[in-house]
Prior knowledge:
Layout (H helix, E strand, L loop, with lengths): L1 H13 L37 E5 L2 E4 L9 E4 L4 E5 L14 E6 L3 E8 L11 E3 L6 E2 L5 E3 L2 E3 L2 E3 L2 E8 L4 E4 L6 H11 L5 E8 L5 E7 L6 E7 L6 H14 L4 H9 L1 E5 L4 H6 L21 H16 L3 E11 L3 E5 L10 H11 L7 E5 L8 H9 L2 E8 L4 H20 L1
Parallel strand pairs: 4-6, 16-17, 16-18, 18-21, 19-20
Antiparallel strand pairs: 1-2, 2-5, 3-4, 5-13, 6-12, 7-8, 7-13, 9-12, 10-11, 14-15, 15-17, 19-21
Helix pairs in contact: 3-9, 4-9, 7-9
The structure holds zinc ion.
Amino acid sequence: MLNLKINHSLILLSLVLVVATSCKTNKQWEGQGEIQKVNTETVPVQRQYRDIFNLGNGIYASNEFDGARLNGIVMVNDTIISTLSTPENTPINTSPWYAFKLWSEEEQKVTLSLTYPENINHRYHPKISSDGINFVEIDSSELFIAKKTVEEKIKTPSATIRLSISPDTVWISAQELITTSDNKQWTNELSLKPFITKSKAGESREGKPIEVLRIGESDDKAMIFVLSRQHPPEVTGYLAMKAFIETISSNSEDAIAFRKKYNTYVFPLVNPDGVDNGHWRHNMGGIDLNRDWEDFNQPETRVIRDFANKKVKENNGKIYFFVDFHSTWQDIYYTIDPEQKGNMPGLVPALISETGKEFENYNPNVKPSPGTGKRVTSTSYFFYEHGAESLTYEIGDNTSREFVKKKGEVTAEKLMKLLLE
Length: 421
Ligand SMILES: [Zn+2]
């Protein structure tokens, strides 16, 4: 309690320097360096304790729902509520994924202070919702991001929100809450189409189904594979994947022709345990699944590896294209070294350039990975194992949702055209 009070006065002091802003930096874009192999053997994770919390003053909070985390909440004084979100285990990327519900017996104004463990920065612009389904961004004038300089680096240790609460529950969340049940609803609807079938490819560490959709009426000689949500909070990547898949499943001339020639296999939620438990990045084995495509220590990666191998063997098929949807600070394409030739050389550069032509003044960052043959990530695994022309498709956390959808649709349209040529 004492610690929280001290932390809070520090936060209030730093409010003097506060600027209302999103958390973009202006430094030169470098992208991630070469991805290093790490040990992916299972380690313990911290679950969050779920409950309804009586905070006093007639104010209540709850984290009894799937997706995102609330690991502590306390009234600091009559009007300030401090929340804490902690990761499932460490070391981990800075992606504090918080969500909780608040209500009060009487309508009142409160100040919410979102805090994280030491050295973790605030990342996600808070969103609010009255139903847990439709979220809107909190107005920037009600949001203050604390900034302080530590060893010449700008840190953003907390964010403060002014908010009215009442007997009507309000949801506060880092990103839109899209959990396994939302995904199930989407895949159920899609699989009503006669050319889409849904099946369970295997199970997560917690025993949740890892679902795969098969889209198409071809004989599996030619296939594409699609993944999303290896990393639980990466909701914008998921939204782009959805638009991409809906376009491949549409009634357009190209989509109909495409489905006669190619089958698309999509794993929309690779990490269902992480998604529902609100993990910042890892699966229930405490591992970043996108570092486990060489050693396959985790069930989620093994399920997809075995499924793809089976499909290739059964019909002597080929995977021509592989895409893995993610989110990060901005829109990025991570590609394979263009000197390396897969099953359709030049496909990914052509796809990026064709997609770009549809958007004025849009210059996404493109970074090829060094062609070392390492298979740490899904993209490198599908390229070096199956020859699939592979792409890691990163969408910015704050990219407008309208643009995310449009870009996912255009990417699918261009891909279908290129693969039909
Ligand atoms: Zn990611």
